[in-house]
UniProtKB/TrEMBL annotation:
Protein's gene: oppC
Cofactor(s) annotated in UniProt: Fe(2+)
A single BP term in Gene Ontology: xenobiotic catabolic process
UniProt cross-references to SUPFAM superfamilies, sorted A to Z: Glyoxalase/Bleomycin resistance protein/Dihydroxybiphenyl dioxygenase (SSF54593)
The protein's Enzyme Commission number: 1.13.11.-
Taxonomy, superkingdom: Bacteria
UniProt name for this protein: 3-methylcatechol 2,3-dioxygenase
Organism: Edaphosphingomonas haloaromaticamans
Enzyme class: oxidoreductase
Amino acid sequence: MTVDRLGYLGFDASDVDAWSRYANNTLGMMTAAKGKDSDRYRLDSRAWRLAVHRGEADDISYAGFEAADAAAFNSTAERLRQMGYQVTNEPDDLKADRGVIDLVSVIDPSGVRIEVYYGATELFEVPFVSPVGVSSFVTGEQGFGHIVLATPDLEKSMEFYVAGLGMELSDIIDWDLGPGGKHKLHFFNCNRRHHSLALLPAPAPKHIHHFMIESASLDDVGRAIDRMERDSRILLTFGRHTNDHMYSFYGITPSGFAVEFGCGPRDVDRSWSVVRYDSISMWGHKFISPE
Ligand SMILES: [Fe+2]
């Protein structure tokens, strides 16, 4: 009885208006709601997937992991408590804010607020329409996409996400950053998506390194590259990852961390074995330094 997917993300952003333009016009997300201090965006039939809150951190504020039902939700919360984590039963007003039936929160070993919930709000009566014509985002059973978080204590973070939330290790990449040293990137799955979470065991300026959204077609990715070049800045060129086989590129968000926009990855299945790699990419994903 574990979490089944990454469901939603919240960011703290110093420029929510820039995020609004970026989410709609560059990434192709649909606005779900505009508030005084936060805006919400949709990727699919869910009422919302991304919340951008006015704040100074320009970092991840919370990540919501979804359990299938009350039994999985309760057993995950109980397991975290037995491991010694302080798990907070959130009040009705926050459950209503998130649009979920039940909700707990806990701080992970790297200091990121993790919310575990079940019973999110579906909004089939208001169809998802991308304002820039992204055909669709791949979510559903595989959830939002993925996040990569920096952690100062890989062992503790792994214990939290594997023994606590019930995720499984997919693989490890020895990522050679040249003068930045080598880092053992660890990737974790909780459904067919190769990873919903990756951990970067290195000191980093922000908790989040990047988040990933997956579109249905290569044309969606190509058009996103065009929009990113027009509106913003590309961080890593189009390429294909060694482990999930995703075709993707990376852009810089208005908060300074990155976003990966991709398509066409392979799934993990029951025949999957944990392996390791010496490179993050088969080809491409070349760093573009700012002018
Ligand atoms: Fe990624």
